[in-house]
Automatic annotation (TrEMBL), chain A:
UniProt protein name: Phosphoribosylformylglycinamidine synthase subunit PurS
Associated pathway: Purine metabolism; IMP biosynthesis via de novo pathway; 5-amino-1-(5-phospho-D-ribosyl)imidazole from N(2)-formyl-N(1)-(5-phospho-D-ribosyl)glycinamide: step 1/2
Keyword set includes Nucleotide-binding: yes
Organism: Oceanobacillus iheyensis (strain DSM 14371 / CIP 107618 / JCM 11309 / KCTC 3954 / HTE831)
Any single Gene Ontology cellular-component annotation: cytoplasm
Record GO terms (molecular function): ATP binding; phosphoribosylformylglycinamidine synthase activity
Length: 81, 228
């Protein structure tokens, strides 16, 4: 088994109203040093080991997990004992 | 003209859509559960209603875009037959790649539910031929993720091909170029966030949406008469 961690973030330049709200809330708590906040997604998958695992995960990201119009993604693979 | 109104788990404007085309516009219509793909044989127009298909898990419209019925609808669209997606239906069409761009969280984050004024930017389409060019119409909006986004190149293409069909007068959600509705290049697929099906009788506060359904029916009749 492999543990796959997929990180999905909005592309730079894409307006992130959720991030903006978080930034403003942090500032209203007194954290004036927060200049920007961006919100992303974090998805964990347990995947059986097999050939072309990286290609298949890339395909999963492109076809469903991320929307390539507005989002970038990256993933980490690690073994699970 | 026979319409199918596709019902996904979580659709909630399906009956409004059915009522608008059948009871008010006077066309044939059938509610089709998303697994009943064989019921799409012999259907002329597909209507994807608003709501929260699959609970909007992951992203609005993303789960519905992978369903078998969407493969059928892609084939239907490829044949040049009309497809209208409203609200969640529009989100499903962008997630499916049938329309370019994406729908994001509203600029001010809140879910909005009220009437908005729209401008009919193009009345030379299958869906809008009974409107005047630049006619101002009032349709309700009801969405939390209706901010239309696309990259610069896509926007230029939309403009060059007259694919922007409706714009907001007072952009309520932060959409690029005030976009409220777009069509595909071929002109047979329209997606829009505002709800024409909830504006088909004066009782509802506006009947401006009726002309959209009547345009579809009239244009279908014309093309059918030519083909027959």
């Amino acid at each position: 088994m492999k543990k796959v961690t997929v990180y999905i973030t909005l592309k730079p330049g894409v307006l992130d109203p959720q991030g903006k709200a978080i930034q403003e809330s942090l500032q209203s708590l007194g954290y004036q040093e927060v200049e920007d906040a961006r919100v992303g997604k974090f998805i964990e998958l347990q995947v059986e080991e097999g050939p072309n695992i990286e290609e298949r995960i890339t395909e999963m990201c492109d076809r469903l997990l991320a929307n390539p119009v507005i989002e970038n993604y990256q993933f980490d693979l690690e073994g699970v004992k | 003209m026979k319409f199918a109104v596709i019902v996904f788990p979580g659709s909630n404007c399906d009956r409004d859509m059915y009522h608008a085309v059948k009871e008010v516009a006077g066309a044939e219509a059938e509610l089709v559960w998303y697994t009943e793909t064989d019921k799409l044989e012999g259907v002329d127009g597909i209507l994807l209603p608003g709501g929260f298909s699959y609970g909007d898990y992951l992203r609005s419209g993303s789960m519905a875009s992978t369903s078998d019925v969407m493969h059928k609808i892609r084939e239907h669209a490829a044949k040049g037959k009309p497809v209208l997606g409203v609200c969640n239906g529009f989100q499903i069409l962008t997630e499916s790649g049938l329309l370019p761009g994406a729908l994001m969280r509203n600029k001010h984050l809140s879910f909005m539910c009220h009437q908005e004024e729209l401008v009919v930017e193009d009345n030379q389409t299958f869906f809008t031929s009974l409107y005047e060019k630049k006619e101002v119409v009032r349709f309700p909006i009801a969405h939390g993720e209706g901010s239309y986004f696309c990259d610069e190149a896509t926007l230029k293409e939309l403009q060059a091909n007259n694919q922007i069909v409706f714009t907001y007068k007072n952009n309520p959600n932060g959409s690029i170029e005030n976009i409220a509705g777009i069509r595909n290049k071929q002109g047979n697929v329209l997606g829009m966030m505002p709800h024409p099906e909830r504006a088909v009788e004066e009782l509802l506060g506006s009947d401006d949406g009726l002309k959209l359904f009547k345009s579809m029916i009239a244009n279908w009749r014309d093309s059918y008469a030519i083909n027959a």
